[in-house]
Design a protein that fits this description.
Blueprint: H1 3-15, E1 25-28, E2 33-35, E3 49-52, H2 55-60, E4 64-65, H3 80-91, H4 99-104, H5 109-120, H6 124-141, H7 146-152, H8 158-169, E5 181-189, E6 192-198, E7 203-208, H9 214-225, E8 228-231, H10 237-248, H11 265-274, E9 283-284, H12 285-291, H13 298-306, E10 319-320, H14 333-347
Parallel strand pairs: 2-4, 5-8, 9-10
Antiparallel strand pairs: 1-2, 1-3, 5-6, 6-7
Helix pairs in contact: 6-8, 12-13
């Protein structure tokens, strides 16, 4: 590995720079362990560090995984005990997990509270409440009575249900039949956690959880549809999970599920053109602009490309600079590099 590149990597681990996650693995000669670039453990001296491309190389060289940053786990992966709770909620949204229930399962309430605050911006109790209200919202829209929905959702009184409902949607349950909800869920991938949003029409957002513009994007789609974003299941999420898994396993080269893109006519045209770039190939901003008969609008095409909120399915990662260099990508250039190499690798094996 080039010396200058190693110096760059060393500066990255000192800064715990998440932009380098997935790019390299740090191995410490004095302790025999290997870590992620963002590991919180005390940083070793430069002369005691070597770098590998991936965990396999580190293991084959005799190093063992760090217990602080767990480099063998998927980035920000949801713990199994939380996955179990979420699956049970998906089956029956009226289920209530109180602190006593968690303790009976050997789960510390403070532990799950911290995890939900970090990854969802709310406590586990608030998450459960939002999930129940989302389920109730859909039942009311399907014609069920407010009274039956309230008690079926686990609420002990109509007033309590009404207050919780209004706190989330801003309106009473009886006035909600013509309102819109956008469902939100969390997904695990080899490149880290993603958030997905969907309406009845299709997937309207798929972004990595550490994308800096994520909060702005969520506000934008909520405003565009005059809707409320709530944790909940959607008929398109199971298909999305299955097809993303196949994609990351190298078994899928195109996605077959409805997309609900939200943007201007020009943006829609740019995003449609992105979906026409073949798997395993790349295009340039100029080529994309020419394809739209707008060769003078390269910058505008680039801006629209950057406004794409549906990563991977609408493959903005396949657009590179005219000189072939990788350019901006909301999920981080290391992810863009990984996706392009992944597709190229599996294209040659088809």
């Amino acid at each position: 590995m080039e010396l200058n590149l190693e110096e760059t990597y060393y500066k990255a681990i000192l800064a715990k720079d998440s932009a380098y996650e997935g790019t390299f693995i740090t191995a410490v000669k004095t302790t025999g362990i290997f870590c992620r670039p963002t590991c919180r453990a005390r940083k070793p001296k430069r002369e005691n560090v070597t770098f590998f491309k991936n965990t396999k190389e580190a293991i084959l060289s005799g190093y063992r995984p760090c217990k602080v940053c767990n480099p063998l786990e998927q980035l920000d992966e949801t713990p199994e005990f939380i996955k179990t709770l979420l699956n049970e909620l998906a089956v029956d949204p009226s289920v209530k997990f109180k602190d006593w229930d968690l303790l009976q399962r050997g789960i510390q309430p403070s532990q799950i509270r911290r995890w939900f605050l970090k990854n969802h911006g709310m406590t586990f109790q608030a998450y459960q409440r939002a999930f129940r209200i989302n389920s109730a919202f859909k039942k009311i829209q399907q014609g069920e009575s407010v009274t039956s929905v309230a008690f079926d959702s686990g609420f002990e009184s109509l007033s309590g249900f009404g207050e919780s409902f209004k706190a989330i949607f801003g309106i009473s349950p009886k006035k909600s039949k013509h309102s819109t909800v956008i469902d939100l869920t969390r997904l695990e991938t080899p490149l880290g956690t993603m958030f997905a949003c969907a309406t009845a029409q299709g997937i309207c957002l798929l972004e990595f959880s550490d994308r800096k513009m994520l909060e702005t994007e969520l506000k934008a789609i909520a405003k565009y549809l005059n809707a409320t974003i709530v944790q909940g299941e959607n008929k398109h999420f199971d298909t999305l999970r299955a097809q993303l898994t196949e994609y990351f396993e190298g078994k899928r080269t195109e996605f077959l599920l409805p997309i609900h893109s939200l943007g201007t006519d020009f943006q829609q045209a740019v995003w449609t053109a992105l979906q026409e770039i073949p798997y395993g190939e790349t295009s340039t901003y100029l080529r994309q602009a020419t394809r739209l008969n707008r060769s003078e609008a390269v910058r505008a095409v680039g801006n629209a490309n950057g406004m794409n909120r549906i990563s991977i399915l609408v493959p903005c990662h396949r657009v590179v600079g005219t000189d072939g260099n990788l350019t901006g990508y909301g999920g981080g250039l290391w992810r863009k590099k990984w996706l392009l190499e992944h597709e190229q690798k599996h294209l040659t094996t088809k």
